[in-house]
Specification:
Nucleotidyltransferase, domain 5, 3 domains, 6 strands, alpha/beta, six-stranded mixed beta sheet
């Protein structure tokens, strides 16, 4: 017999004793007060057998984050909804000079109590609080690449890709063209309202080439996917695509990834996620862009 069954058996015996004799006799036999008896009787009449089960004990957590401190944490989360528990803990420790210093587990408990332990819930709450007119499409998780890129010098390999960040009311779709040096992780990015060969060339011409020239370097190879902004899918158009002609004019080798294999270019794919979390999702919440 379990402890719950023993508790129910004890209380039923008490009620039957009071019915057979009287309340005073039952309380004397079971050594309880009349107040306690009527509490048990009330629970039985209201909930039946379930009312006789012992109430679950809520543990007293002396280290629980409370009051103003929890509010400061939630305010910070509202400002930076894309940060996870570990980063929130680190950022708060630095910004408050140690006044708010908790582990990532403690921060997660605060998020869990307030229904914010998932990033999409934090984003939803943050956007509601500012009345933002931005709608974001679902960002699918990218498979973690298994291929490790090895380079020996800066400019040896640059990954480039385009990415649809989202939609801003009154402006339309927002795209980014981004490129990252696979040797030193230096990244370049620009925002556009379209995704074409012109925007692909513009990033290289306006950001990448001037930077490397300033340091006496030259990009050697650029890796992209098979998007129409980087190459043509027509046999008769090989070598005539504007982006490919531009790279050829600079003596930069152009390499394409395998079809439907974004993990081949995982370096830039992961940077898109960083750009989304560190910039776009926060920037569009703080300001209305026209």
């Amino acid at each position: 017999m379990t402890s719950n069954e023993l508790t129910i058996h004890y209380k039923i015996s008490l009620l039957e004793c009071a019915k057979k004799y009287n309340v005073s006799a039952a309380c004397r036999i079971f050594r309880i007060s009349r107040t306690r008896y009527y509490q048990i009787l009330g629970q039985f009449l209201k909930y039946g057998i379930c009312g006789l089960l012992p109430k679950p004990k809520i543990p007293n957590m002396p280290n629980k984050i409370r009051g103003d401190t929890e509010k400061q944490i939630l305010d910070f989360v509202n400002e930076y909804p894309t940060y996870g528990p570990a980063r929130i803990a680190n950022e708060l420790r630095v910004s408050t000079r140690g006044k708010i210093s908790y582990s990532s587990v403690g921060i997660w408990c605060v998020l869990k109590r307030n229904g914010l332990n998932r990033k999409k819930d934090r984003l939803y709450r943050s956007y509601l609080s500012t009345g933002s007119a931005v709608t974001l499409e679902r960002i699918e998780k990218l498979e973690r690449p298994e291929i490790h890129i090895e380079t020996s010098r800066s400019g040896q390999l640059i990954s480039q890709d385009s990415f649809k960040l989202g939609y801003i009311k009154g402006i339309g779709q927002i795209y980014t063209q981004a490129a990252i040096d696979c040797n030193c992780s230096l990244a370049f990015a620009k925002l556009y309202s379209s995704k074409t060969a012109n925007t692909s060339v513009d990033l290289i011409r306006e950001r990448v080439i001037p930077f490397y020239r300033a340091y006496g370097l030259k990009p050697e190879r650029i890796l992209t996917d098979n998007g129409k902004e980087y190459t043509t899918h027509r046999q008769t158009g090989i070598g005539k695509h504007r982006y490919e002609r531009y790279l050829s004019g600079l003596s930069i080798k152009h390499t394409l990834t395998r079809v439907r294999s974004p993990e081949t270019n995982g370096y830039i794919e992961r940077f898109h996620r960083t750009l989304l979390d560190e910039f776009f999702l926060i920037a569009v919440r703080k300001k209305i862009y026209r």
